[in-house]
Amino acid sequence: MSLVKPFDKLPTLNSAAILLVGTDESQQQQLAEAILKEKKIFKINIHVATSLPLPAERDHIRPRIDLIVFMINMQSKHSLRNVEASLSHMDANFFLGKVCFLITGVGRMNHCSVEMNAVRKLGNLYCSPVLFCELESEGIRVATAQRLLRMLQICAGHVPGVSALFFSSLMKSSIDE
Amino acid sequence: MDETVAEYIRRTVLKIPRHEIMEMLTTWDFLSKTQLQTINMHQIKESISQEVVELCEVITSIVNDQTMSNSHNFVFTISGIFSCITGEETDSFNLADFKYNFKRSLRSALKNVTINFREYEDNATWIRIAWGTQYTKPNQYKATYVVYHSQTPYVFISSLRNRIPLLCQALVHASNYHDIHEMELRSRCLDSLKDIVFKRYCQTFQTYHPRPLQERNVAPEKVDPRIIQVNKREKERIQSVNQEVFGEGLQPKIEFAQYKLETMFKGEPEMDILTEKEPFRCVVKFSSPHLLEALKSLAPAGMADAPISPLLTCIPQKARNYFKIKERKGILSASCLGP
């Protein structure tokens, strides 16, 4: 089993790779298709996995992963546990802005089995931004896809002058100031 | 005609939705075609039902036949009752004898009952029983239905609480079996109960594949090549484990599974409360419009690990959906025992 490292491979020209980690396959597929529909100027590869570590067999063909998105479904404790288990199989260098948590299912409050505090603590502990979205709604799905695409561009280094470390500004709330 | 019967017909007709009334009356088959044609369908339902009652005035004792023919309209929970040991069983089942013995046995215990029989093609005998007490007439609205397949030791009873011993005694006596006891299997769908108990559903067999076989020709989905599934092998494993456990084909339809826990509470040793004194009593109930299909889809949907707990998957094999879980002596783990 291989540890995913952010800087151990050379980047390919004008392309970026995003890894979606989560238990709900249909949601991942929906998000992946939404991302692919967006207009972009670089080539994109979306890898969809249920958990980390990734199987070692295809390691040599896998491109460098620029952004990892952990998908947690608030209605399933199983998804939270899966993500927590996967987080320990990552190289620490990823947490400099190349990781993001995507939370779905917050819209139906009475079906939630994961607490909001748990998710916020996770974001704070791993210094990564936490995004909320409802993938069933078309508009929100498109907006999330656009956001992720922009983050991916920055993480892959395609935007001059902006680096992934700037994402820490997404985590500060105005109350903290 | 008895006025309770007339009232019963009137209320039954009122319950039927308007567009289905003509169809229902034709299936009931106790009014002739000419009589049916005289009913004016465009009036309010009360008048329609009144007309039907008037036409029925001339016919006696049709009440109970027609309710059994439209049984699919009735939502009733059925408990499967298992008749276990065969005592002196006669070689051939004689329906007339059965009916006679059953009626006699039940009437000897309780005078005020209405009993009706009806046979169907697949060897099923439907018995409709309306109960009364010593002083009151039988209540036609809260009737019990009993389905008995003569070649099998199983009887299906729609739910009733207080008359079970009487009914069981009559059944045992009439069918010449030795004993009868209740199975812990309940559902709204009679066909599913029959499927489980007669083993008509798709059963699974223990197979051993060192490598998963590529059996089915799955048409390749139109997947964008830019989306790469990293854990494809794991997903295939989950599918094959699921297949092994649940089998192919539709599962029988059950709505509930109830687990009564009588296990010890396993907490921190420092906490004095509840440790090792008394079993922790708890009831866990799973409910769904179609429980077994929902359990089958849990692992592929990513909501549970495959393989799923055998307590959930043993429901069709053990033919029960009400469980009592006690401590296994010696090893501290829950096991599935039952009365």
From TrEMBL, chain A:
Pfam short name (any one): CENP-M
Keywords for the protein's UniProt record, in alphabetical order: Centromere, Chromosome, Nucleus
GO CC entries: chromosome, centromeric region; nucleus
Predominant location category: nucleus
Domain of life: Eukaryota
InterPro entries reported in the protein's UniProt record: Centromere_Cenp-M, P-loop_NTPase
Signal peptide region: none
Subcellular location field: Chromosome, Centromere; Nucleus
Protein name in the entry: Centromere protein M
Lineage of producing organism: Eukaryota, Metazoa, Chordata, Craniata, Vertebrata
UniProtKB/TrEMBL annotation, chain B:
KW Nucleus (keyword) present: yes
Location relative to the cell: Chromosome, Centromere; Nucleus
Record protein name field: Centromere protein N
InterPro entries documented for this protein: CENP-NAC/CAD_complex (IPR052011), Chl4/mis15/CENP-N (IPR007902)
Gene Ontology CC annotations of this record: chromosome, centromeric region; nucleoplasm
Main subcellular location of this protein, as a coarse class: nucleus
Family the UniProt entry places it in: Belongs to the CENP-N/CHL4 family.
PANTHER family, per the entry: CENTROMERE PROTEIN N
Organism of derivation: Chelydra serpentina
GO biological process: CENP-A containing chromatin assembly; chromosome segregation
Keywords: Centromere, Chromosome, Nucleus
Transmembrane segments: none
